[in-house]
């Protein structure tokens, strides 16, 4: 049995756009029927929402991959800067601990 995403993977971009509009309309109708008490269950609504999310994911994939690459580079640079800034703080903290042990006095930090 094919996975649900596989049927959407085989569609062209135009077909995906058409499928998105159909699913959006179907979700609207199902929600309306559910609110008026005409629908029997919510399983069709739930499945339609999931299908719409799958279609949107495939349509946004090129944008998401470009953004993910840029975000990963930015995160790596930010993380590197953070680690560089943390090194002097760690040394100062160790020195403070040693001085506290030697004198037996705390630095007055409230807990």
Brief synopsis:
This protein has helices spanning 4-9, 13-36, 43-59, 61-103. It is mainly α.
Helices and strands in order:
Blueprint: H1 4-9, H2 13-36, H3 43-59, H4 61-103
Helix pairs in contact: 2-3
Largest sheet: none
Number of strands: 0
Question: If helices are DSSP runs of H or I spanning 4 or more residues, what is the number of helices?
Answer: 4
Averaged pLDDT, please? 77
Architecture in CATH? Orthogonal Bundle
β-sheet strand percentage: under 5%
Helix content: over 70%
Per CATH, what is the topology? Answer: Helix Hairpins
CATH class division: Mainly Alpha
Number of domains: 1
Protein described:
The chain has helices spanning 4-9, 13-36, 43-59, 61-103. It has 111 residues and is an all-alpha fold. The protein has a single domain, classed as Helix Hairpins, CATH 1.10.287.310. Helix 2 (13-36) packs antiparallel against helix 3 (43-59). The radius of gyration is 28 Å and the shape is elongated.
Spell out the key features of this protein.
111 residues, mainly alpha, 4 helices
């Amino acid at each position: 049995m094919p996975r649900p995403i596989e049927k959407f993977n085989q569609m062209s971009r135009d077909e995906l756009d058409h499928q998105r509009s159909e699913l959006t309309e179907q979700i609207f109708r199902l929600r309306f029927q559910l609110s008026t008490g005409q629908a029997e269950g919510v399983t069709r609504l739930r499945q339609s929402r999931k299908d719409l999310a799958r279609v949107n994911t495939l349509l946004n994939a090129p944008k998401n991959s470009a953004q993910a690459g840029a975000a990963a580079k930015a995160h790596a640079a930010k993380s590197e800067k953070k680690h560089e800034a943390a090194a002097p703080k760690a040394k100062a903290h160790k020195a403070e601990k040693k001085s506290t042990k030697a004198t037996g006095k705390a630095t007055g930090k409230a807990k």
